[in-house]
Amino acid sequence: MRASPLSITELNEYVRRSLAGDPMLQGIAIQGEISNFKQHTSGHLYFTLKDENSRLSCVMFRQYAQYLRFVPKDGMRIVLSGSVGLYTVAGTYQFYGEAMAADGSGALYELYLKTKEALQKEGLFDAALKKPLPLLPSGVGIVTAKGGAVLRDIMTVSNRRFPGMPLYLRSVQVQGAGAAEDLSQALLEIASLPEVEVIIIGRGGGSLEDLWAFNEEILVRAVAACEKPIISAVGHETDVTLTDYAADVRAATPSAAAELAVPSQEELLQRVYHTEQRLHSLGIQRMEQLKARVNLLDASMQKNNPAQKLSLLQLRFQTLLAQLHRETANQIQFQATKLQHVIERFEQSGPMQTLKRGYTIALDDTGKPMQSVTQVKDYVRLRFYDGTARLKTISTEQEKPS
To answer: In terms of CATH, what superfamily is 8-103?
Structure first.
């Protein structure tokens, strides 16, 4: 026994050298199923290989990983070549892979990738082909195994969200020989039901082999060609099948699929209520706008109303006529007063005043004043201030003007 204790680093380094020096642990191949797969940004691959009873931590550095012809994934069975070593920092031993080949499920996964690539080039997965889900379906079709957890989950969620929603089941074989054909036929049958407006197709989780029916081309094409929207709920959230790509919507779980297919009755009622309130408010607002517009039009019509304009013109005419009458009366009064003044002045300066002073005016037979003695006839009328007198002419004597 050593006199002094070993440090952890010394012990780990000794074990590392021991493992590295054991030819039984170098250049060997192991077989198992990948789990906990992670690819670091550096390009290194970290994962666990497992069989029915044990697990082994594995790492494949970038210089080896870059030559892989496929992408490793959880659930794949592979054959990994490399050597056993110790990771001294953690004190754990792990397998350092240098080459990887698909084995069993790995071969299936390669077929999965090839089928996916071919169908994708055909456009079967294009987003433009995706159909929208109905807001309130008249019925929901379900394609899955009868009596399984998938069906129970869908029924539970459906009854909770919309009690009484009609559900139509087409029980199918979900794995094994003939499963893909049965699933394809089930889609045709349930899509032909006029009551069904959306379809959920799915099964529980499993290995790649268990889920393989949902990767077969016949089913993928049937899903893509279905005239009614399809929700795919196959396996667990981490499982992705070609049916998921072809479906109109992919759900992580059967419960999530039911949430997508079956609306919440309470939420719909709330939407209807809020929509009704909004329409009511918009209606009142629109009525107020129309009322204001009608008032403006009425005011404009009143302003331009011929009857009102005629009434205004008549009022204006009456006003002008009254003004004319007043001005005419004033003018007549003014002229009368002026004439009276003239008459008074005339009377004051006229012949009547002279006659009142003792003078007379000789008038001819026509009543016109005579200005010369030569105009005197046999008779002469004399105009006094208070009357006339007719006189016989005895003689006339004309004087020469001085």
So the answer is: Nucleic acid-binding proteins (2.40.50.140)
